[in-house]
Amino acid sequence: MNPTHEQLVAFVTTVEAGSFSAAARHLGKAQSLVSTHVANLELELGFALFDRSKRLPVLTANGRRMLAEALSLLEQREHLLGVARRLDQRIEPRLRLAIDEFYPERLIGGLMHDFAARFPTVEVELHFPLLDDVGRMIDAGSADLGVMCRPSEPLATLETRPIGRVPLRLVCGRDHPLAAGGFEREDLKRHRQLIVATRGQRSSRQAERIAPDVWWVESHFVMLELVKHAVGWTLMSDHVIAASPARPELVTPIAPGLERWVELELGWHRQRGLGIAGGWLRDRLLAEALPDRWPPLER
């Protein structure tokens, strides 16, 4: 049993057009050829696809079942040919993108929607590591392109470009002593501080330390759950605070001199470079840099 592409197309088009003659007009072929393709497909399968006793052909029960299979096969064929065309154009078959959680997630959806429309056959891996992990992933070859916080010690193997910055604000739970505001920097030392840090990378985050009592947490969202329960205070970006389920129980008191900006960069490997799809995504990220001004977060 070996149905041909022409037979499957004739079958599906006849169903969609409603008759052999209409299918022939749609395909630009003789009606006799379309009818022959369908008849030969029925011989290959061993059963009738259409009931021809009426003026117009009507699908049999087996025909209805085989229609779904035929559509699936034709779609798979088009996908296969699309992948082959992309490869022939030297478009990479896969792109691995690593994005730090400090990058606003609301900007990712529309960007990747446009990418999917332009490169429908490129398989994408989206990773969301923290801090220095993005650069290490690119350096190790497990990511092709990355959005990262500007590192204190840049990797020589990476090519980077600035794409903007995000604000960090002090945040604590409503029941925390700092929630009322009116404190000085020295007052922060009396309360536990939560700092985001990846496994084994605490030393690189020591500059963020203000309080002697510190907990190190790998997840922004888990950190805000801890903040909600007054376990400690932290510095966090607006978009992470706003998206957290804990937001109703969080307070962002004014903390002059403490709130600051995190500089974000786009990076890729100097030697490996980027393919056509990766280059397109890089250019879009550079063209749509983060705003210099952010609307104030409701405190």
Automatic annotation (TrEMBL):
One of its GO terms (molecular function) is transcription cis-regulatory region binding. Residues 1-60 form the HTH lysR-type domain. Gene3D superfamilies: 3.40.190.290, Winged helix-like DNA-binding domain superfamily/Winged helix DNA-binding domain (1.10.10.10). InterPro entries: LysR_HTH_N (IPR000847), LysR_subst-bd (IPR005119), WH-like_DNA-bd_sf (IPR036388), WH_DNA-bd_sf (IPR036390). The keyword Transcription regulation applies. Keywords: DNA-binding, Transcription, Transcription regulation. Belongs to the LysR transcriptional regulatory family. This is LysR family transcriptional regulator. It comes from Halotalea alkalilenta.
